[in-house]
Design a protein that fits this description.
This protein is mainly beta. 8% of the residues lie in helices and 42% in strands. The chain has a six-stranded mixed sheet with strand order 11-9-13-18-15-16, with no helix packed on it.
């Protein structure tokens, strides 16, 4: 059963309460209006995609609000399929981003009201049809009530790929997911115009430092930062000595990306929008699908640079943006050489043993029943085990990856604390996505059942192909 079917089938149980909540939200004028519809988007000159987007732009407009403020959002569905939005990284009721969330039918309008929490770099995106294969996503920033702000300015970078086709067993390509992007030009070199070689389309791999080894991977023809391929969008202009806060959001449907800025280093201060106890300076940052990284960069190397993927093929297909110092001229420069490992545990501190009220062991693996099916404890969703939790109790969830690919595991409407990665203990790292590494990788999280609204939420792989293939479970407050 697909997620769109699940939402529709379970939403009926909470229809009365949900309708009441939506009517209450409709009593006040909306702070934001989000209109989902079809659009044509130019990724670079000569390459235009037909996709679905919010407000006709990719990414959608920035939503910015203060922590603790009440937010009313009106969602208008101008598409031919039901729509629903995930408020990724926000602690919200399940009638806002859970199993009780009603779809917005085609041609209809719904209004939602909720509290903006927690503070940090967040994301909103579609969870229907093409999901994150489409252009329906945008940055969301919840400003903290108090933050020192030790930087001169901020720059938001949203990473994405425009989907071309998904190979399946027995055929070269299957149909595109509803709402995903289609190209009005053939797959081409984003910078040079030649046919692609290597990479996904040529039989190799591209993406991040963690290789994206999918069994039947989505094949992308266009990569983008803030909706534009490298060289097609406006450069980021900086001044020497300036300290810039980069908020990097990986809105990819499937891929991990590793980014570097030659001649500069990143002081990583936040993971998934949450401050880390031990900031670290690295020459590259790495993000799985749905992850966010905040990092400070001191602009002390004048020139024209490429901030982009450390994978040559991904850069060639457009994953990068130009950084231009004032007064500098010439072609953008890229230099290989980023070597620093990006490990969650390096941002944490030693922790103490804690008492937990329950333990859940979740084994993530390839299902033998279908070439594109994935399982949790040997079961494909909706037959996967439900995690039952009681309010305010503490649970240890242990992920074990027995497949050859990574899995970015995410819990909607809730956060968690990372406590062990591949046998290495850590603490103080608050996240909502954890990438479980392939080939017996293990990640352990502490989950406090502290969503004040309770309800039922999806625990899912944020790789859209894996989620649709069954790598999903339900976390239910009791």
């Amino acid at each position: 059963m697909k997620r769109v079917e699940l939402i529709g089938s379970l939403a009926a149980a909470g229809a009365v309460a949900t309708a009441r909540s939506l009517r209450a939200g409709a009593a006040r004028p909306p702070d934001h209006v989000i209109s989902a519809g079809e659009t044509s988007w130019e990724v670079r000159p000569g390459l235009t995609v037909r996709t679905m987007a919010y407000g006709g732009i990719v990414p959608a407009k920035l939503l910015r609000m203060r922590e603790g403020s009440r937010l009313t959002v009106e969602v208008r569905n101008r598409t031919a399929v039901p729509q629903s939005i995930s408020w990724h990284g926000m602690v919200v009721p399940d009638w806002i981003d859970g199993l009780a969330t009603p779809d917005v039918p085609p041609g209809d309008v719904r209004t939602y009201t909720f509290t903006a929490t927690p503070a940090g770099t967040r994301l909103y995106h579609s969870i229907h049809g093409g999901g994150m294969f489409s252009g329906m996503f945008g940055p969301l920033i919840v400003e903290p009530k108090r933050e020192r702000g030790d930087y001169d300015r901020e720059v938001i970078l949203v990473l994405h790929e425009f989907e071309h086709a998904i190979p399946t067993q027995g055929s070269m390509f299957n149909e595109q997911p509803p709402g995903s992007s289609t190209l009005s030009a053939p797959a081409m070199n984003m910078m040079g115009g030649g046919m692609m070689s290597g990479g996904m389309m040529g039989g190799g791999m591209m993406g991040g430092g963690r290789k994206n080894m999918l069994i039947h991977p989505a094949r992308y023809a266009a990569y983008a930062v803030n909706g534009k391929a490298l060289g097609a969008g406006d450069p980021i202009r900086v001044k020497r000595g300036e300290r810039v806060r980069f908020r990097v959001i990986n809105a990819s449907a499937t891929l991990t990306h590793r980014l570097a800025l030659p001649g500069h280093r990143f002081l990583v201060t936040h993971l998934d929008g949450n401050p880390v106890p031990r900031p670290r300076t690295l020459d590259a940052v790495e993000l799985g699908s749905g992850e966010r990284v905040d990092a400070l960069v001191t602009m002390n190397a004048p020139g024209i640079w490429v901030l982009g993927s450390t994978e040559a093929e991904a850069r060639r297909l457009g994953l990068g943006i130009v950084i231009a110092y004032d007064g500098e001229h010439g072609e953008p420069i890229w230099r290989d050489g980023a070597q620093d490992a990006f490990r969650y545990q390096d941002f944490g501190v030693p922790g103490n043993a804690v008492h937990v009220d329950g333990i859940y062991d979740l084994v993530l693996s390839k299902s033998p029943f279908s070439p594109d099916a994935w399982s949790i404890n040997g079961q494909i969703y909706p037959d996967t085990p439900t995690l039952h939790v009681r309010r305010r109790e503490l649970y240890l969830i242990r992920f074990s990856n027995r497949s050859m690919i990574e899995h970015p595991m995410h819990i909607l409407g809730n956060g968690f604390d990372l406590v062990r990665v591949d046998g290495v203990p850590t603490s103080g790292i608050r996240k909502d996505v954890v990438v479980v590494r392939p080939m017996m990788g293990r990640s352990e999280i502490l989950f406090r059942a502290d969503n004040p609204y309770g309800g039922k939420f999806l625990l899912m792989c944020h790789n859209w192909q894996h989620m649709k293939g069954g790598l999903t479970s339900v976390l239910s407050y009791t």
